[in-house]
Structure formats: structure tokens, C-alpha cells
Specification:
The protein is an alpha/beta fold and about 290 residues long. The protein has 2 domains: about 90 residues, 3-Layer(aba) Sandwich (Rossmann fold); about 120 residues, Rossmann fold (3-Layer(aba) Sandwich), CATH 3.40.50. Helices cover about 40% and strands about 15% of the residues. The protein is built from 10 helices and 11 strands. The strands form 3 sheets. A 6-stranded parallel sheet has the order 1-11-8-7-5-6. Helix 7 links the parallel strand 5 and strand 6. It is globular, with a radius of gyration of 19 Å. The chain starts with a strand and ends in a 6-residue tail after the last helix. The model has no long low-confidence stretch (mean pLDDT about 95). The structure holds NADP nicotinamide-adenine-dinucleotide phosphate. The site of NADP nicotinamide-adenine-dinucleotide phosphate (NAP) has 26 residues, from helix 10.
Length: about 290
């Protein structure tokens, strides 16, 4: 069998960004420039790099992304205060609280304080509840990015497909599993207590790896012809490495998303699209 088709996240992101640019121009022409605030704790280097990439990507399409940096030692109340300022700011239509938050903070309470209408990374319990009910509006961007990649023409229909997700975090694994279920796949969620993980993964027609362990998924875990989506972004020896051993897995999978250049760029593009979406909803209607 030939090597797996590479599911090019940069190309998918480019298509999403083109649509976003047109919609941003329309919003700006109406005098309502889309503006997003990112609340970022300064102890998180990976979070800082990610937030910078959103600022840059926003800049390229005309979205204003403002950082609200907080010292590493900030308390839950400090974060809530910073959050309240952007929730109350009518100029800011979109809010991202960079996660994961440090363990000394009450993440649940903080996410509850994001206005659900401005919650472009789907962190508020209301938006999580909608996702649970199968009526998603704002879902975590990485999970939405996985689904964007699975919509590509090279990927067979998800309807009735056997899907396995490794990882059950609220940011990636769980929302991906819910979105796959909504797309009529039959889904198994695996985690660190799963027995016979290799055998369970081997049953998958669609395998999503969101583990946070470099090259964790090997060819022995992948069925011939499966579609494999690699969410992992592990920094190893100065470069990003996925959760999938791409070299061996590409010999058995029919399609594979690469790292870098797969889920990452699509996640950023989906976030921009969510920012435009909430900005359009917030913009005053013009009289008919
Ligand atoms: P996380 O919160 O650490 O969750 C990891 C999940 O993997 C947990 O559910 C854990 O199980 C499971 N796991 C760990 N070791 C396992 C093992 N040996 N066997 C089976 N399951 C195992 O990580 P996350 O936030 O979901 O992120 C996952 C990966 O995606 C990371 O590499 C992260 O950097 C990457 N990521 C990428 C993007 C992007 O935009 N590209 C965005 C977010 C995250 P338990 O629940 O039992 O602990």
C-alpha cells in the first residue's frame, strides 16, 4: 500500500482564513471591527507562544487581538477582575482564557465568568452543555479543527464509522468524541486506565490521538487504511513532535494529519472564524 495521504492543515486553514478576511472587511466597513481579548498568565511559555500566534494570525486578517497579561502569582480573584473588565467592554466581542490554567487557580469558576456569547474557545459550561446536547455553537477550537480536517474529501464519511479518541481532556478528547458522535460515528474514548489500548485502537477506522506523549501511537496500533488525526504538540529536542509515530503509521494509514502543519494551523483559523461569528452576532442590525 502507498504511504498515507497527508491531510494538509495549512491548506485547510488558508481556505478558512479567506472566508474570515471577507467577513472581517464587512464588519470593519460597518464600523464594528472584530476584537478579541486573551487573558494570559505569564508563567505559561507554551501559552504565550500560542497567544502570540493568535495575535499575528488576527493581524493578518484584520482582527484586533489584545493581550491581558497577568503575573504568574495572580489569584483567582485577580483573574476574575481582569476577566470582568473584558466581559463588560462592549468593544470586545470575543474572549479567550488561555488554558490550561495553573493548578492554584479555580479554573471552573474562571470559565463560568466568561460571557458565553464571547466564549470563542468553548470553555463556558453553557457552551459545553450545548455540545453535550448535540447543538454546538462555540466549541473548543482544537476539537472543531479535528472535525474540519475530517470533512476533507480524502476522508471517507464519518456516518457509521468506528472512531477511537485517545485522551479525555475537556479541551480536546471529550469535545472531539461528542462532535464525532454528532457526526454519527460510533465512538470509544480511551485514557490512561484503558485496558488493551493497542487492540481498541486497532479497531478504529478513524483514530484521534490527543495524549500529549511524543510518537505514542505506533503502526502496530493502527488498522490498515485507517484515518489518523494527530493532535499532539510535544516540544522535543527543539522541535514539535506529534503523538503519532508518523514514519511507521504513514505506512499503514490511508490518511494522516502531520505535526507540524496539521491540527495546529486549523485550530488558529477556527478561532478566527469563531471571533468573526460572535462579532457578527454582536454587531447592531442595519435597518431593512
Ligand atoms: P491532557 O489534558 O494532558 O490529556 C491527555 C489525555 O491523554 C488524558 O485524558 C490522559 O488520560 C490520556 N493519556 C495519557 N497517557 C495515556 C496513556 N498512556 N494511555 C492512554 N491515554 C493516556 O492533554 P490535552 O490538553 O488534551 O492535549 C493533548 C495533546 O494535544 C497535547 O500534546 C497538547 O499539546 C496537544 N494540543 C494541541 C492543540 C493544537 O491546537 N494543536 C491544542 C490543545 C492541545 P487520563 O485522563 O486518564 O489522565
Amino acid at each position: 500500500m502507498a504511504d498515507a495521504v497527508i491531510l494538509d492543515g495549512r491548506a485547510i486553514a488558508g481556505v478558512i482564513r479567506s472566508d474570515v478576511s471577507v467577513r472581517v472587511a464587512a464588519l470593519r466597513a460597518r464600523g464594528t471591527p472584530p476584537t478579541c481579548a486573551i487573558v494570559l498568565l505569564e508563567n505559561d511559555e507554551a501559552g504565550r507562544l500560542y497567544a502570540n500566534s493568535i495575535v499575528k494570525a488576527g493581524d493578518a486578517v484584520g482582527i484586533d487581538v489584545e493581550m491581558r497579561r497577568l503575573p504568574a502569582a495572580s489569584t483567582t480573584d485577580d483573574v476574575l477582575l481582569a476577566l470582568a473588565a473584558v466581559v463588560d467592554d462592549a468593544r470586545v466581542q470575543a474572549i479567550i482564557v488561555q488554558r490550561p490554567l495553573p493548578s492554584h487557580l479555580d479554573a471552573e469558576r474562571i470559565c463560568e465568568e466568561i460571557d458565553p456569547r464571547k466564549d470563542v474557545d468553548g470553555a463556558h459550561p453553557y457552551n459545553q452543555g450545548l455540545l453535550m446536547a448535540g447543538e454546538s455553537f462555540l466549541v473548543p477550537a482544537t476539537a472543531a479543527a479535528v472535525m474540519e480536517i475530517l470533512k476533507q474529501p480524502q476522508v471517507p464519511s464519518l456516518d457509521g464509522a468506528r472512531a477511537v479518541v485517545i485522551g479525555r481532556s475537556s479541551v480536546v478528547g471529550r469535545p472531539v468524541a461528542l462532535l464525532l458522535t454528532a457526526a454519527n460515528a460510533t465512538v470509544t474514548i480511551c485514557h490512561s486506565h484503558t485496558k488493551h489500548l493497542d487492540a481498541v485502537c486497532h479497531e478504529a477506522e478513524v483514530l484521534v490521538a490527543a495524549v500529549g506523549r511524543p510518537r505514542f501511537v505506533t503502526a502496530a496500533m493502527v488498522a490498515r487504511g485507517a484515518v489518523v488525526i494527530d493532535v499532539g504538540t510535544n516540544f522535543v529536542d527543539g522541535r514539535f513532535v506529534g503523538d503519532v509515530d508518523a514514519e511507521s503509521v504513514s505506512k499503514v494509514a490511508s490518511a494522516l494529519s502531520p505535526v507540524p502543519g496539521g491540527v495546529g494551523p486549523v485550530t488558529t483559523a477556527v478561532l478566527l472564524r469563531n471571533i468573526v461569528e460572535v462579532s457578527e452576532r454582536a454587531a447592531p442590525r442595519t435597518p431593512a
